[in-house]
Write a structure and sequence with these properties.
16% strand, single chain, globular, eight-stranded mixed sheet, 15 strands, Rossmann fold, 34% helix, 14 helices
Amino acid sequence: MRIGVVKEIKPDESRVALTTAGVVELRRRGHEVLVETGAGAGSAMADDEYEAAGATITDVDAVWNDAEMVLKVKEPLDGEYQRLSPGQILFTYLHLAAAPELTRGLCESGAVCIAYETVETRDGRLPLLAPMSEVAGRLSSQVGAYYLMKPLGGRGRLMGGVPGVLPAKVLVLGGGIVGYNAALIAQGMQADVTVFERSVDRMRELDVSLGRTVLLQMSGRHAIAEALPGADLVIGGVLVHGAKAPHLVTRDMLGSMKPGSVLVDVAIDQGGCFETSKPTTHSDPTYVVDDIVHYCVSNMPGAVPITSTWALTNVTLPYVEAIADRGLHRALAEDPALALGVNVAAGEVTYEPVADAVGVRYTPLETVLPLRVA
């Protein structure tokens, strides 16, 4: 198969969808890899390194026109999704539940669009979302601590305090991968951390892994509202698989918070879990609503592209190999987890939570893309 890797054009996005090591593995299996000029520069992988690994360096038009499968990191932007052709495979993060216009554009393209974030195993794991959730969760506490500083608009609270002065109080909404990693780093910074989670079983796991220095509380609007007045930093890490995130902090609730407190919305790709959230960029990451600092960067892992690119390829490469080696239909038929990643095919939305979120008809995948095992 001919596999293409394009350079990300989203503002401040320096990740790339495939490492040089990934190129070596695909070439070893007999596949051709086209890499757009400069695609890996932001992740410290130069064109000559890709060429040494066996890739063909070419221009953006050649990648989109010639590749049977296009690999990306972020969702295609206006000007990119129009390049897709019927039957071409797009494999990337899509987050379509909060993007009706993109969903329509992908449907019109006729391409098969597979979302990293909805590839889901039988036990409910999201293997291609997990590493970026780990990165974003760890970053959320770092950036929260940074924006708590007074010169950045924050309250002026040190995360760990000092002897005789209380540490910052951190609320983490959601105890999944994002929440666990956010709590882990905040705990390491010696903050006062509370994680809000709805699953008692998950809270038991967190109790073992984080220890009793992190408090665990059953999540609910009332409980969160009661905790907000004492919070210095609130990290939103809730996830509803493939669907829009619920608003756990409303505009009215901001009035109970202390001026200069910080909200970090890791769920912004799925619409955000704070009512006042709107996507921001690394170049202009924050804004203030009702004296509360909001950090809502929609590609947080792009701030650490070397770590993120290698972590992403570690988990996506086996799925890329499966599609390239077996062909799309057979790969989907043999792996139900990968089949759940197909959000759009043959002009139809084939992932029900996305269809519900954007208000279009849901069409089961098997009715538009015959699945077979040869």
